[in-house]
Amino acid sequence: MKTVTHIPEAWTDISALFEALGDAHRQRILLSFEKNERLTILQIVESSQLSRTAVTHHLKVLERGGALQSEKIGREVFFWVNKAFMQQALGNVLDYIKNEI
């Protein structure tokens, strides 16, 4: 067994992503996006069984974890899947599993 005193730099954002993905409501929200689709909060609420307040909370967690990105255009905020970040983060985990375990 080796002693781990610090988390590798490649893993620094992974825990927030796993936290974001660790809830069934957030998983459903993430899975509701089609390829390259951008959705507003209202569109996400319409396809969800959650209140707008709950959806807003889950979107913040998903964005903080890196699973989603957003942009405000006029009065609307559009969200989309941050595919590149998730691929990189999960790729780092898979590389560790392949090479270290």
UniProtKB/TrEMBL annotation:
Xref: PANTHER family: TRANSCRIPTIONAL REGULATOR, ARSR FAMILY, TRANSCRIPTIONAL REPRESSOR SDPR
This protein's name: ArsR/SmtB family transcription factor
Domain HTH arsR-type: 6-101
CDD domains registered for this protein in UniProt: HTH_ARSR (cd00090)
Keywords recorded for this protein, A-Z: DNA-binding, Transcription, Transcription regulation
